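Researcher: We're teaching a course module on how sequence relates to structure. For the next exercise, students receive a sequence and then see the predicted structure as tokens, so they can try to spot secondary structure elements on their own. Here is the exercise chain.
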Amino acid sequence: MRIDCLQYANWSEKVFRQMREGQVDAVHVTIAYHESFRETVQNMERWNRWFERFPDLILKGQTVADIDRARATDRTAIFFGFQNPSPMEDDIGLVEILHALGARFMQLTYNNQSLLATGCYEAEDPGITRMGRQVIREMNRVGLVVDMSHSADRSTIEAAEISDRPIAITHANPHDWAPARRNKRDDVIRAVVEGGGMMGFSLYPHHLKDKSDCSLQSFCEMVARMADRYGTTHFGIGSDLCQDQPDSVVEWMRTGRWTKEIDYGEGSADAPGFPEMPSWFRDNRDFGTIERGLRAVGMSEAEVAGIMGENWYRFFAESFGAAP
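Model: And here is the predicted structure for the students to work with:
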């Protein structure tokens, strides 16, 4: 089983066929960065057209049963998520509506302070807001996963403490391996996994040791070390693959509508676009390379199977339904 818990490609038949060539059974796709509720619904409508045009390649995922159905019919299940709470605007009532429309993950922040929590780029982190506490409670109730991938440390730890259900960091790496601002320190990872949560390891070069020159061995040794430290069952892949996207999309991700200037984030002013992917992971066809790399650093077949998909499968099964 292969599950990738974060991609934001420039979607096309080519990408969908590569998913099948790579035998990727399920992908959590970003359908909103800074969009309003109405704009997010329009993005969902666009996905409906892709489901109609490519029924032999992809299907809409809402429960793990859809992953089973995808595997049985040689397709990829697509699960919706947001990298910002902007689709719910300032209305907690939209949380349930968005879940009913198919959303399964929502980040409480995207780098900046939101109405709910603090992003990892802010100088100060006062933690989860009053509204954030209420929204987490509502997300728990309906089965919308709390994602803290772009959130600051205190906010992430507090979210793990407040949430009655396990939360996720869908795409990041340990800060002590690659000290990017969005990578996570030990106390943050511990807070998430001790509450039963999940973390997906990112292949985005700015989050890798040596960036685009990161070796497969270095990445896989990091995964093995984290599994030894915290337990294999808490980790998977969240590649953060942004395949075939123009640089204007990077500007939209980082800048949105909050500034008139271009925010380069963890990139540099002379390289504002997407960095080059490491040679061993270019697209969905390369997941087998990661599997082989994990075996090469001494992980067992059961551990590799967990990292590549079975851990996310279990988390999906426990997380997407209404609270009992």
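Model: If you want an answer key for the exercise: The longest helix spans residues 301-319. Residues 3-319 form a domain with the TIM Barrel fold (CATH 3.20.20.140).
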